[in-house]
Amino acid sequence: MFLEELKNDDYGNFNVSMSNTLTRSAHGLTLVEKRAIMMAVAIVDSRKGSRAHAHLAEFQKVKITALDYAETYEIDPRNAYLYLKKAADNIFERQFSVKEKVGNSERITRFRWVSSATYAKDEGFIELSFTPEVYPHLHTLKNQYTTYKLKNAASLKSVYSWRLYEYAKSWTTYCQEGKSVHVTLENLKHILEWPDTYDWSDAKKRALVPAIKEIGTLSNLDITYKIVKKGRSVHALEFKFVERDQLELDV
Question: In this structure, are 147 and 174 located in the same domain?
Answer without folding.
Answer: no
